[in-house]
Amino acid sequence: MTVRQGESEKNWFRSERLSSVNGALYFETREGSIEGPFESELEAFLELQLYLRKTEYESYSARPER
What we know:
By secondary structure, the protein is of the alpha+beta class. It has a domain at 18-61. Helix content is 32%, strand content 21%. Strands 1-2-3 form a three-stranded antiparallel β-sheet, with helices on one face.
């Protein structure tokens, strides 16, 4: 992976997105929050996509204007 000048190499890993606990599904975010419970894989997947889009939007809207 290419890194920016002055930054050290990082090892990224991907884990399973969903966890099942007592029949309910959850996902964990990079920020450490656990989201759920969800009744189906479809519901969990859709909520995960919504979470990712919301996080991306908040990241862009928090940037200072140029």
